[in-house]
Every structure is written in C-alpha cells, then in structure tokens.
Design a protein that fits this description.
The complex is a heterodimer. By secondary structure, chain A is α/β, with parallel strands linked by helices. Chain A folds into two domains: 172 residues, Aconitase, domain 4 (Alpha-Beta Barrel); 34 residues, no CATH class. Chain A contains nine helices and eight strands. The N and C termini of chain A lie far apart (51 Å). The C terminus of chain A is likely disordered. By secondary structure, chain B is an alpha/beta fold. The N terminus of chain B is likely disordered. In chain B, helix 3 packs across helix 4, helix 3 crosses helix 6 and helix 14 runs parallel beside helix 17. Classes of the chains: A alpha/beta, B alpha/beta. At the A-B interface, helix 4, helix 6, helix 7, helix 8 and helix 9 of A face strand 1, strand 2, helix 3, helix 4 and helix 6 of B. The structure holds iron/sulfur cluster (SF4).
C-alpha cells in the first residue's frame, strides 16, 4: 500500500447523508472474485442513466469533467452505512480517492478505509459545507489538502481544520503498512494469551483443544 | 500523536479495573492478547465464519499473499449469498458470474482445510442461521464474519461482529484482530411484548425511536424482562438489526434458554466439557453496579406491530399508523432523505399503511427465516390463499430449518396458500444481479434492509414481521396479522 502523508487534490462534493455501500457499489457490479475491476461500477446507480446502461448521467458530480480527477470525496453523515462489503472501499480506491471527508462514518466502513489506504476524515457539517462552498467553479484552483501527520484539512482559502484519527489507523496509513505484518510482530503475546485461554476454555478449541483436554484427563 | 496523559486516564478506566463490569467488558478482557494503544486492543478471535460472496475473495487473497489459515478447525464457510434457491439447484446461478464465487470458495476452502457447508450439505444455510444452529457460536466467544449481520449472533451471549474482507484475512492468518474498543450501551426493555408483537417489531420500533445512528459506535446490550422472555430465535431477530442501528454489535446475557438451546449441537461442548462450560457461561452477565456509556429504558407495552414506509430502516411506523408528515419526523430524517423516500416508494403523507396494495411478499433472510418464524407465518396461511397477482416466496434460513418445516408439514401450507417453497439461502433478501422482484414492485418483506434497489432495481421494500408478511400476502395489501387468529 502506498504510504499517505499529505495530499493536495480536487475535492468532489457529494453532500448527502447516509450514503450506503449499495449506492457506492451496487451488488450487481461486484462480478468477479477479485478486488479489482470495480471502479467502473462506483456509484453506478447515480452515475449512469439506467441500470444496464453506461451512458453517463450529466447531473452526477463525478461526470462533471471539472470534478472527474477528484481524489478527495466530501460527504455527509453516516457515510458507508449498510452492508459491510469491502468492495465499496476497493471501488473508491480504484477510482482514485485517497481521502473521504464526512461528518461521520459507519465503523466497518471506516476500518475498511484504513485497511485500504484511504484516510477517513471526520469534520463537522459546518466545516464540510464551508469546504464545499470554497470549491467554486474551478475546483482545480481550489484544491483541498489533507495532512495526515498534523491531522489537518486546509483549503486554498487558508481555512484550517483539525480532525481526529486513532493512533493505530494513523500509523498504518502513514507507513502504508499491512496490518497482518504489524500483528505478527506480537506473536509471543498472542501465543501466551492463547495458551492461557486453552486451559481456561478448552471447549473453544475444536480439534486441538479437544485432544489436549482428553490428554489432560488421562494424565490427571 | 503524543497523548500520554490521555493514555493514563484511559488505563485507569480500562474495563479490567472497573468495580462493576459489563458483560462486554468480561468477554473483552479474556480475549485481550495485547494493548495496541489507548483505544485499540489486539483481541483473540475464536471463530471465523465466511460466505462465498466475501469469503472467496479473502481466502484467495490470503493464498496469493503466501499466507495460511492459522487455525483451520476454528473457521467455517457456507454457501448462502449467491447460490440459487430454486428447487433442484446446481452451481449455476442467476447472478452473472455467481458460479465463479461458488467454485472459488470450494477450491480455497478445501485447500485451507476449513469446514465447508456446500450445496447439498444438510448443514448448509445462511451463516447467521447455521452458526447458532450448529453450536459454532457459543456464549463468551468472539466470532467475526465479513458480513454486517454477524451481530445477530450476539443473541447467544457472544461478541460477534461484522468485518471487511481485509480484516477477515487478518483474522484467518493470525486468529486475532486489532479492534477499537467500542462504547457500551444498555437498552433495558421492561414488562413484556403484547400478544401478536414480535422481536422484529421491537427491532423496528427501536430504529424508529432512536434512528439508524442510534447505536453508533456502541456495543448494545439488550436487557430487561421483555428480552429475557424472548426465546433464542426471537433474540437472534432482535440482535440481527443492530447493524441497521449503527451499532458495533449487540449482545444479550446468556441464560438457561441459551444453554438448553445449545446442548447437543454438533460443535457445542460435549459431555466432558459441558459442566465447565456452563459454569463459565453463567459468569457472563453485567454486574449490578456496572456502568454503561449510554443507557436507555423503554416499556415493551409501547411496542406494536411495525412496518417501514421509506428507504431507511428508521423510517418505520406502527402498522396501524399513516405515512408521517415531514414535521413528524424532522427531528430524525433529513428533508432530503424524507423526500427521496416518498418519491422512491411512490407514497404520500397521511396515507394509511394498512390497505396499501402490494405486488410481492418475501419470507426469508437471517432476520426471520428460522423454524419459529415459519411456524408463525404458516399459522396465518393455513387454510388461506394469497391474493391473486401477488408473488409470494418463502426461503427457509437453513437446510435444517427446511427439513424440519417439511417434517411438520409447513411446506404444504405455504405451497397450498400459493407461496413458492425454496431451498435455503439469502435469495431475494438482496439483489446480486440476477433474480429480482422487478422494477417498481412493492414488496412486503421479513428482511432487514429497505434501501433503494436492495431487492432489485427500483424495487420498493416494506420491512415487517413474517406474520405481517403472511397476512399481507393473503390480503394483497399491507394487513395487520392480529386480525388473523
Ligand atoms: S439473509 Fe440477507 S441480510 Fe442476511 S446475510 Fe444474507 S443477504 Fe445478508
């Protein structure tokens, strides 16, 4: 994964609340057993003129050539609610989004963002409205900056907002790190906790545990 | 980010050090392998459940990274999401490319040595139905699944929650997850539900009352006499919709009903471990002096049969009410959502819900497709026929439920009434790109989501209990099942 430090990019406003993962990537667009090939289906229900059509709907923001190169998405409350399909984040990432600024996120969706190198930024609705208003007619001249080291969002008009992100998520995004690698560095702690748990709750361990507890009974 | 003072305070209030501990705290503590930072812990994961839609991708991408499943005996995969549910089904699916998911799941599950509930297996079914049914989920376990309705399984006193595919790979490779400690909420429901009012109505009532972000970031413990009075299957229905409530998950303290439910299930503790397991499970309750980050208390007597009118599960009303005016819901529904809902659903304010003509009726999904759900719906359908022109479909939640229903003759009641009787799976709970109810069709459904196009392009979904679905199918319009004694 590409490390994320600071991004200055065009922001596309999609200022609705409760944008769910079905809207981000409709189920019918998830055709293959891979994480790729999804960008085409991003927001398909809104982006195209009909269910089976690929005719762009000119009213949809990402079909506006000024916003098409956006790397930052601006939205409302409860972004990414609904089904936990990670395809929603894969589609956003493949389309090119590296940060989403919203009033709040569904927690599963937020976790998926971090796992896939997208920065979930929570800001108040006033701040979001102000950023959206700042974009004007030429968003390329009014780019928005997300600084993950300082946890700030700033606009070309020098507005500056602070946001919060947990340390773990920040560390992973800054380092472009894979969570599995990070966890395996704690292998000793995991093994110790498991060993203690095996003694406490042998019935949890379906094969190994059963054998162990049978052996214990014999030796006792 | 240096917040050392903050860390210190966090530690002092960490779950392990509190005087009174919640049910959640107790489960969390025994699963803590390490503290990652002030808000995130590395948590031992006891069970991973997968399905062919998201599981195939997780297994495949794990294999592609050259990693192995650490504890295959703790991992289970079912075929539920894209499999066909028409009788005599094969690997062929109505979802284009669905077969690829089935074939890939079979291949990678076999390679990883994990337990697979394949098509034709007597234990196959919807993940959240078969896991309790087979005793895979147990009180006090941590169980994760790349599926948002994993919260259902908290009904047995487990900490069960939905994750993404990348997190699933992490759980498969390490049997742990890095999890941000959720906040705790208790919803106490006093007295008992009135006759004819179900757990589904209660779930919809809570959404209507607190909104779809009402539980955001919280693990919600359902407690109180109305909850303990529910049988295990009804508790699964209640917890199922915690994700619609925005919650991290839901949980109910396990009791004798849960222990009796689990006794003898294939993956539940055997005789040798049973007494020790029960002794440990009996500890799983919030202490008298436990404190929660948020508490709500409601009276079950307020709850009546409910139905949704809009495109968010919070847009629910009592069945005998009318579609609200904007002013009635302005506190919760933004104007844009309200207007979009009315337009999408083709409805107008002040129109009564009862009598609204429907095109289709669906009984199924992890919310309401267990044997007790089918029995209650069949009671209403016995000796009756569905209205002409209505498409009605019943999809049992698991192959075991289907067999049980057939042994009891329920299939014949559904068929005689004019319902289709199908093989088990998610079926038309969601639209995978194949089968659908059709454009602008109005569906009364026992499922959990009424989002736009959830059950097919432009399909209009009204969520309700299985008995309301059955009564409405008979009337050809939304109907109150309490009149169908
Ligand atoms: S039945 Fe519906 S809600 Fe439940 S797991 Fe299947 S698709 Fe998801």
């Amino acid at each position: 994964m590409e490390p994320f430090t600071t991004l200055t990019a065009i922001a596309a406003p999609l200022l609705r609340d409760n944008i769910d993962t079905d809207a981000i990537i409709p189920s019918r667009e998830m055709r293959s057993v891979t994480k790729t090939g999804l960008a085409d289906g991003l927001f398909a229900g809104w982006r195209y003129s009909g269910v089976s059509s690929r005719e762009p709907d000119p009213d949809f923001i990402l079909n506006d050539p000024r916003f098409a190169p956006a790397r930052i998405l601006l939205s409302g409350a409860n972004f990414g609610c609904g089904s936990s399909r990670e395809h929603a984040v894969w589609a956003l990432a493949e389309f090119g989004f590296r940060a989403i600024i919203a009033e709040s996120f569904n927690p599963i969706f937020r976790g998926n963002c971090v796992n896939n190198g997208i920065v979930p930024v929570e800001l108040g609705c006033d701040a979001i409205a102000r950023i959206a208003a700042s974009l004007g007619h030429w968003p390329a001249n009014q780019q928005v900056t997300v600084d993950l080291q300082r946890c700030t969002v700033s606009t070309a008009q020098s507005d500056l907002w602070q946001f919060q992100i947990d340390d773990e998520a920040q560390e992973m995004l800054l380092g472009g790190m894979d969570a599995i690698e990070l966890t395996l560095t704690r292998r000793d702690a995991i093994d110790r906790a498991r060993a203690a748990d095996r003694l406490r709750r042998p019935w949890i361990y379906l094969e190994q545990g059963r054998e162990d507890s049978a052996k214990e009974q014999i030796t006792n | 980010m240096e917040h050392s003072a903050g860390n210190l305070i966090e530690k002092e209030t960490a779950p392990g050090n509190r005087a009174g501990r919640t049910l959640f705290d107790k489960i969390w503590t025994i699963h803590q392998a390490a503290e990652i930072n002030s808000e995130t812990d590395l948590i031992l994961i006891d069970r991973v459940l997968l399905h062919e839609r998201t599981g195939a991708i997780a297994l495949k991408s794990l294999a592609a990274a050259g990693r192995e499943v650490l504890a295959p005996s703790q991992v289970f995969v079912t075929m539920d999401h894209v499999v066909d549910t028409l009788p005599g089904r094969t690997d062929a699916t109505s979802m284009p490319t669905g077969t690829d998911f089935i074939v890939a799941t079979r291949e990678f599950a076999t390679r990883a040595g994990i337990t697979l509930f394949d098509l034709g297996d007597p234990d196959q079914g919807i993940g959240h139905v078969i896991s309790p049914e087979l005793g895979i989920v147990l009180p006090g376990t941590t169980l994760v699944c790349p599926d948002s309705h994993t919260c259902s399984q908290g009904a047995l006193g487990a900490l069960a929650w939905g994750i993404g595919s990348t997190a699933a790979e992490h759980a498969l490779a390490t049997s742990t997850l890095r999890v941000k400690r959720p906040r705790t909420m208790r919803i106490t429901i006093d007295s008992v539900l009135a006759a004819g009012v179900t757990a589904k109505d209660l779930a919809l009532y809570l959404l209507h009352r607190f909104g779809s972000a009402g539980g955001a970031g919280h693990i919600v413990e359902y407690a109180g006499t109305a909850v303990t009075a529910l049988d295990v299957e009804a508790r699964l229905t209640l917890c199922n919709m915690a994700t619609e409530f925005g919650a991290f998950s839901a949980i109910i303290a396990p009791d004798d009903k849960v222990f009796a439910f689990l006794k003898g299930r294939p993956y539940a503790p055997g005789d040798a471990d049973w007494a020790a397991a029960i002794a440990s499970w009996k500890e799983l309750r919030s202490d008298e002096d436990a404190t929660f980050d948020a508490e709500h208390r409601i009276d079950a007597a307020e709850v009546t049969p409910m139905v949704t009118w809009g495109i968010s599960p919070q847009q629910a009303v009592p069945l005998d009410a009318s579609i609200p005016h904007f002013a009635d819901v302005a506190a919760r529904d933004p104007r844009e959502l309200y207007d979009r809902a009315l337009a999408y659903m083709d409805l107008a304010p002040a129109k009564p819900m009862i009598g609204l003509p429907i095109d289709a009726a669906f009984i199924g999904s992890c919310t309401n497709s267990r044997i007790s759900d089918l029995r209650r719906a069949a009671k209403i359908l016995a000796g009756r026929k569905i209205a002409p022109g209505v498409t009605a479909i019943c999809v049992p939640g698991s192959t075991r439920v289907r067999e049980q229903a057939q042994d009891e003759g329920l299939d014949q009641i559904f068929l005689d009434a004019g319902f289709e009787w199908r093989e088990s799976g998610c079926s038309m709970c969601f639209y995978a790109g194949g089968e659908s109810f059709g454009h602008r069709q109005r569906v009364i459904s026992s499922t959990n989501r009424n989002f736009e196009s959830r059950q097919g392009p432009e399909t209009r979904t009204h969520l309700a209990s299985p008995e309301t679905v059955a009564a409405s199918a008979v009337m050809g319009a939304i109907a109150d099942p309490r009149g169908f004694a």
